[in-house]
Amino acid sequence: MDFSSRLYLASTQTNKNNTAQCPFSINCALALASLGARGNTKQVMENMLSHGNNNIHRTLGELINKQSFSCANALFMSNKATINNAFIADLNQNYENVPARTVDFCTTGRDEVNKWASENTDGNIDEIIPPGGVDATTTFVLTNAVYFKESWVNKFDARQTRKENFYGIGNSPSQVEMMHRTSAREQYGEHGWSIDNTDLYCEFKSLSLLYKGEKENKYRMTFLVSTDENNIESFKNMEKILLHNLSEQSFSDKLIVTSCKYLTQEQKSHMISRIAIPKFTIDSGVIDLKDELQGMGMQVAFSPQDADFTGITSRKPLCITNVFHRVFVKVDEEGTTAAGVTAVSGGRGGSRQSPDVKIFVLDRPFMFLLSHVETNTIVFMGKYMKP
Length: 387
Prior knowledge:
single chain, 387 residues, alpha+beta, Antithrombin, Chain I, domain 2, Alpha-1-antitrypsin, domain 1, 2 domains, 9-stranded mixed β-sheet, 7-stranded mixed β-sheet
């Protein structure tokens, strides 16, 4: 599997609640940190992030330039440490406009990072560093924020939104605000996917809805639901099989962020007689991806004894201490608002806290992917399990 899919599965597979991630933001923030890594630390980080791509920073920079959503980076430096000027220059050479500011992590540093997160997500994410997330041992925090807000090409009529049942875990119904459209031509697919050399197989349906944006049809949200209406295990199988296949295809193409190219290639234009999608809002809260990243093989970057970040500062020991991540997604009749922030902190170490007629009704757990049409890059991904 590629990096983004492995991390998503590792951090969400046992989560029975609604959740979301922004793979684009996680990749960007860790790539910023890897610019200051040296030796084996640099090799491990860049190999994991790029899976064979020769120049992760150039490729990621080109991806950022193709996007029309807001993407911001920043460096917060401890007032008690000396950061190499060459590292700041590298940040700005590879990722345009990475402001560097000096803060006191013992007093106002946490508030300043959180204020930056709020300013760069239109207030949707007002905290990325939790209480106790930085302290006197913190040398730097590298941040990335992604903010997306677009309207559907074909909006839903709010007058058609009504309370309907949603069958979540245990197949017990709960009431949701269900949005409706009728007689719409959209990209729709019916899929049967498996994982080679296993017994895992699932059948699922997908529907992609386009956004307007600066350049019409530049982004889409793809909804995916198992055809088995009564089995939560079928959703888990779909999630596992889908991510495995998307990541294997991304890996073979040496793509840095997971691509949905092969999924959308299986979709065709269909007349959909009925579309029913619940309005929903997901706030993942602040999660620390440190354990998952170490479990995936990035232990050296978190080790006070073995990590080498002398490209950032000559101070030792210096390692990554936390990778905080938070996502906000709101889907309604008008369109979608989505924000993701990642903060990589570094210090002396130690843990802290043909068109036949179809219907497409999302009345049971489903996955969603928000992607860039031209490159098929998945920017946000998540799952809706219950109201």
